[in-house]
Amino acid sequence: MSKTYLVAGAVALAVAAGGFWMTRTETANLPPAFSAAAVAQEAAAGSEAQMVPDMVLGQADAPVTVVEYASFTCPHCANFHDTVFDQLKANYIDTGKVRFVYREVYFDKFGLWAGMIARCGGPEKYFGITDLIYDTQQEWIAPGDAAGIAENLRKIGLKAGLGKDELDACLADNDMAKAMVATYQANAQKDEINSTPSFVVDGQKYSNMSYEDFAKLLDEKLAN
Questions:
Q1: Measuring CA to CA, how many Å separate 44 from each of 96, 125, 180, 192, 205?
Q2: CATH of the domain spanning 3-223, picked from 3.40.50.300, 3.40.30.10, 3.20.20.80, 3.30.720.10
Q3: Comparison of pLDDT for 156 and 224, the residue scoring more
Q4: Which of 143, 161, 178, 211 is the most buried (most CB within 10 A)?
């Protein structure tokens, strides 16, 4: 069962909700927060230059492309990471069979903050930080309050070798936050994403699945 992607409501960020304005909180050391009273064009005003690049593993000319849509705060995504992804990477991505594209979904501000931490080290550190975020999901989410979660995410960044000033600058970057949300909205709308994790394999959408089912699907694609 996947976490449902909510199209409306104050608790979720939806593709069809019209856009989101990233604002600075008055509390020191907190990242930007979502405002539900957003002006649509601020997050979705996207030109090509404002779009955030995909994070990619594998060879550019791999015969099959897998796009994963996932949220750092989604327990089903963490379970996929724990039980499927390592085998998928070893057997299909690292062997040149699959080009893997990871796209972030933001159900809440905490998932966005996690994405900002993951991207803070650039493409070279992105997937290593992503591993840390998923492996410790229950721990960094545990405080339940913004200050505690922000501090835990900073600790993940520090563990990954990022500097304190570097992390603070990344988390305070409103332009990046808006670009990330705009990119997420555009991609999720294009691929009709309504749950996480979801996968687009050579242009066709699939729901969450076990490694065995994923391997069977990929083997069929590779045989064609």
A1: 35, 27, 10, 17, 24
A2: 3.40.30.10
A3: 156
A4: 178
